[in-house]
Specification:
3 copies of one chain form a homotrimer.
Chain A: H1 5-17, H2 25-42, H3 46-64, H4 69-73, H5 79-91, H6 96-124, H7 131-146, H8 173-185, H9 193-206, H10 208-227, H11 232-236, H12 242-254, H13 260-284, H14 294-304, H15 319-328
Helix pairs in contact in A: 1-2, 1-3, 2-3, 2-9, 3-5, 3-6, 5-6, 5-7, 6-7, 6-15, 8-9, 8-10, 9-10, 10-12, 10-13, 12-13, 12-14, 13-14
Family (chains A, B, C): Belongs to the urea transporter family.
Keywords (chains A, B, C): Cell membrane, Membrane, Transmembrane, Transmembrane helix
Membrane topology (chains A, B, C): Multi-pass membrane protein
């Protein structure tokens, strides 16, 4: 492998950008800055190191396995790897075994991405999206409970009956703004408001409709979570918003051609994602696993599978995200 | 949308009928009467209101999304919606948020129905049947635990080890007859004996073989549940019988051409459904979710997937249930 | 059915052999001897009787349903049945109902095998392998908790938080050798060292590369389990090794054409299987179900799905395992 700019740096940066469906190196750079800023703010750098490591290993693995070069160039094998790399240090204490875990996990995320492409995408046109990240990280994090060499922090398994239902307290306006941006930052597992702002700017650099959809998704999630009286502490961290943000973008702009009907369709999908977030929090509780972006992945799969019925049309600037998996199969 | 008889009332009534695979408006009317009678007997009308609301919303959604008109006419987008509408009020206390939940849930059930059609049915000829109802209602009910605006009644999450195994007590003959009909009524989540009788009459109106299969399924389930010593309280409510009733009909009459071999095949499927009922009760326990018709759905999928091997032939009068999903994709 | 040698005994013995992908009657005989020896050593014969019963019923069912004769001859409908027959008596106390359970379970395993062939294999070229055994046995064992007629021994449902992480104690060399062979024996749920030796000899009789892959899988699993500090009691029983043994064989030799690249690929798959073993132990805990060969099945599916990308080539002597499912659909 030649590690020159066009062969390696650009695909990696685009891989970061593809977490929000943006095949844009500058956008990816903004996202990496957002991740770094959150580390700077908290003093915990393992997440940033893990993100970069996961991104590189995932991209290198795709090259080593000679997966479709156009997809690699578009960053389509990097975005699951960066998420594995940022998620594992968020829930497992730093140690040499954690880094081993991230290296293997990021490599496996690339293989699972190819696996989803060869099945879901090939047969049904359903994009794998961050599904491979969710599956790979669930398995690795659940495994970590079994291994003395890895220490899981927080999130102990519990019964759903222990789950605290929300009280009626509605956050103050300033906090609403914070949550609005945290909803975006949490896609990268970042609870930092500024990081959310940087990410949103990065999205707008690549696509205005995508940026508007992200904002709409965050706003809808915020309103629904408060109306349904979800646990305020969870809402406040932005944990009810990041999946709806992705759903709003994916269904409203990225994988379907935007129209009045599609906007309504994406609106229902976004509201449903909030409900599925509540559902998976309960369903996953006994396993001691966070739901990650599974509420988005599940809802998006269900809403995109019958998309031919609505004569969709992939979004031009990021068409690769919708179609590249086909190229890999 | 024009809400005249041919365009709206008939498809809706057929939608009710399709819960038992019957594309017959009169049968559907009988089913609605059975649901109403159970509400009259218990004084709880939320289930009947929910059923009608779910049926209408699901059908309207299919029209709004311009799904295959022949399938809409046949009621194939209504039967999951009516089940969502009757199941949610059974487990969630009535409130404005419940009705919002049913509206969104019924709309989503139509999209999930199209999703199953575009995947399972398109690729493998497996009918989605009530799978979309099960998935949608699981997600909504699990979500309800997370939301203070919705109050889940009963069915708290527990460990399977808390599950009570059955004692040997065999019910008296009169109670056996009650259970026989409750096994049929519980397909609509109705514990009422008379409702079961009305439903069975409704099935016979549309198809004698289907009615016989329903009776056979109920009887087999009753015998197996007692022989295996399942929890008597659960057996008595008809909760061990409704999935086997559907399996016996689906595998023995609806989705395969009835023959001696197919009857034996359906018999094994029906017995297996009783075992899967016991299994899912245990597996779902930690989530605090009922298994709904999942034992039927899972067993039927597994037994129908290789049906080409047995040269099946869809049942004429209700062929649409077997084939219409294809039209929607 | 004529029960002469070519029609019945040979397919059955090959069915036993196919558990390790070997279409070889002598190998199958060795495996049956290994199972019998373990019964002799422990004095518990229910597992051996169950194995033979499951093998026969599964094969007879395939004949009765007129499934593809070449696949039946190759033993491809027997290997899930023998595993159902050996697994159920391992976790359920012997009783007339257990034998009924095994008969129905083995028959259903054949139908589920056809079901996986008609879906996973037909659409995506993914071999069902022991997936049908895992699914069927999970359902039956979970069901057993619900039925007073069946008594589940050990393995009560628990929360993952009760799971004991491993200490650092590294087993002595002699015990390492024991574990090395138990890792192989546990594919048949046998904790006996001698049984593991007999099985390994049986594999070498049919294929030297397969035997070497089995040894490599066992060694890798042993090293990883110790390095990751998995629970020593579990490691010692060989429970961290049997799935990796199958993964190493399946990915390295059976379903892909062996090469330097494929050996590396299989190595990553084998290591990942150890992690997935740890994961599923935690995830399955609340259900009170063992993970059986699910860690192998899941990992193999994910690694084989995109196999076209690596231009694979089925292993000659056991090509039927890779391709026969296609014939059944």
């Amino acid at each position: 492998m030649m590690l020159d700019k066009s062969n390696f740096l650009t695909p990696s940066l685009k891989g970061a950008g593809q977490v929000f469906f943006m095949e844009n190196a500058l956008t990816g750079l903004f996202f990496l800055i957002a991740i770094g800023f959150a580390s700077y703010a908290t003093g915990v750098w393992a997440t940033t190191i893990g993100a970069v490591l996961g991104l590189i290993i995932a991209t290198v693995t795709a090259r080593a396995l000679e997966y479709d070069e156009a997809s690699v160039q578009a960053g389509l094998f990097g975005f699951n790897g960066i998420l594995v790399g940022i998620a594992l240090p968020t829930f497992i204490a730093a140690s040499p075994f954690l880094w081993l875990y991230i290296v293997i996990g990021a490599a496996v995320s690339t293989i699972v991405t190819a696996s989803f492409a060869a099945t879901l995408t090939k047969s049904w046109g359903i994009p794998g999206s961050t599904g491979p990240f969710v599956l790979t990280t669930w398995l690795l994090l659940a495994g970590a409970y079994s291994f003395g060499s890895l220490q899981v922090t927080g999130n102990a398994p519990k019964l759903a009956s222990d789950y605290v239902q929300g009280t009626a307290s509605i956050p103050a306006v300033m906090e609403l703004l914070d949550i609005f941006f945290r909803n975006i930052g949490q896609v990268f597992l970042l609870g930092d408001t500024i990081s959310g702002v940087i990410i949103l700017v990065g999205i707008f650099i690549a696509s205005r409709p995508a940026g508007i959809a992200a904002m709409a998704g965050s706003a809808i999630a915020l309103v629904m979570a408060i109306v349904m009286r979800a646990d305020p502490a969870t809402v406040s961290q932005g944990l009810y918003g990041f999946s709806p943000v992705l759903t709003a973008m994916a269904v409203g702009v990225i994988f379907m051609k935007t129209s009045t009907k599609v906007v309504l369709y994406a609106g229902i999908a976004t509201v449903m994602t909030v409900f599925v977030q509540g559902a998976l929090d309960v369903i996953m509780a006994p396993s001691g696993l966070p739901s990650f972006t599974a509420p988005y992945v599940l809802t998006m799969y269900l809403f995109i599978a019958p998309k031919k019925l609505l004569s969709p049309h992939p979004h031009k600037p990021v068409a690769h995200h919708a179609t590249a998996d086909k190229k890999t199969s």
